[in-house]
Amino acid sequence: MHAEIVVLPGDGIGPEVTAAAVAVLRAVGQRYRHHFNLHEHAIGGAAIDACGDPLPEKTLAACHYADAVLLGAVGGPKWSDPGAKVRPEQGLLALRKAMGLYANLRPVQPHPATLGAAPIKPHLLSGVDLVVVRELTGGIYFGDKTRDGGSASDVCRYSVGEVERVVRRACELARERRRHVTSVDKANVLETSRLWREVATRVARDEFPDVTLEHQLVDSMAMHLLSRPRSFDVIVTENMFGDILTDEASMLAGSMGLLPSASLGDERVGLYEPIHGSAPDIAGRGIANPIGAILSVAMLLRHSLGLAMEAGCVEQAVSATLDDGIFSAELAHGHAAGTREITAAVLEHIAADCHVAELRD
Ligand code: NAD
Ligand code: IPM
Ligand code: MN
């Protein structure tokens, strides 16, 4: 197949992990005879430096034309002055909004080989398999913001339609899994959460009678996620709660560097990025974990290109690499592998273990 893929490396470790992801994408393309045309564009701080705009028009136009977009990370201390007029993060938020990517899927499946590296007891982690569906284009991130002398405000707003579509997405996903959805809100305090709960209850009851829905308040959910992670299947929640809970959930897997994500809307095109940021504390040292970015390629292949076998091949190669005990610094006890070493190991497994049906005989 032919696919136009936009690559947005961004800032900090973004370009480092994106280079790994692109190498994997190219290897899959060669192995399975797909033509992936990659187009690299600027976003975030790199784009501010180049042209003063964190989402240049050229970048957005390329994304609108693409079959899928692969992103590294944006942001960093260079652009983080509290008084800054323009910020790298605005570019990413504007891109999600412009592409209508309202559902952000963040799967968490701790790998048996890294259970010992996570700060949670291994017996709580084995068998954990959950997906957070984070609402991505609404809520407090996108409400009016004001700064007036000694006070500031950020408005949190949700419409019925915005809640319906993301809850539907979560319920559809649950149907392919264990048919259980946990909706997370703060309905004991927030009006937006009371709307969220009301809509989630109606959508699940009327449209998904085969799916069970439970509600949790976000504060105790932060605890349940660590104390009984195995009991969750699909978790659906609003934008900011989802942001926070998924960084917490990364500790079930053992590292922020392991988790991928897919941001989806009503079209097939999606934006794929690891959940971590630009990690300024380790940028430029060649030690960033590329697995979250590489697994984002698997999600891209599956969700935007419909290439389930190829996606499975990438996931298998990552799993085999971890089975080999090849860990980056934040996970390793002994030898720590760098970004390139991990990528090379994944590529070797793709070459050795991924079989192309028509080439087999
Ligand atoms: P971060 O995710 O960049 O880093 C948090 C911690 O996790 C750091 O200690 C970092 O070294 C570690 N880490 C993250 N990714 C790693 C990887 N692949 N391998 C090994 N260790 C990894 O979060 P932060 O420090 O709070 O934010 C830094 C910047 O990144 C900020 O400007 C923030 O806005 C931005 N950010 C961007 C995105 C994105 O582009 N999607 C996501 C989150 C944060
Ligand atoms: C993420 C990041 C972003 C978010 C920032 C960089 C805007 O933290 O993708 O998780 O909060 O959505
Ligand atoms: Mn985040």
Account of the 3D structure:
The protein is of the alpha/beta class and 361 residues long. The chain folds into two domains: 1-104 and 256-361, Isopropylmalate Dehydrogenase (3-Layer(aba) Sandwich); 119-253, Isopropylmalate Dehydrogenase (3-Layer(aba) Sandwich). The protein has twelve helices and twelve strands. The protein has helices spanning 14-32, 44-51, 57-65, 88-98, 122-125, 160-175, 191-207, 218-227, 239-253, 291-303, 308-323, 339-353, and strands at residues 2-10, 35-40, 68-73, 103-108, 130-135, 145-148, 151-154, 180-185, 212-217, 234-237, 262-264, 270-272. It has a ten-stranded mixed beta sheet with strand order 2-1-3-12-11-4-5-10-8-9, with helices on both faces. It has a two-stranded antiparallel sheet with strand order 6-7. A hairpin with a 5-residue loop joins strand 11 and strand 12. The longest helix is centred in the N-terminal third of the chain and has 19 residues, at 14-32. The radius of gyration is 20 Å and the shape is globular. The two termini are 22 Å apart. The relative contact order is 0.16. The model has no long low-confidence stretch (mean pLDDT 97).
Descriptive tags:
alpha/beta; Isopropylmalate Dehydrogenase; 2 domains; two-stranded antiparallel ribbon; 12 helices; 42% helix; binds 3-isopropylmalic acid; binds manganese (II) ion; EC 1.1.1.85
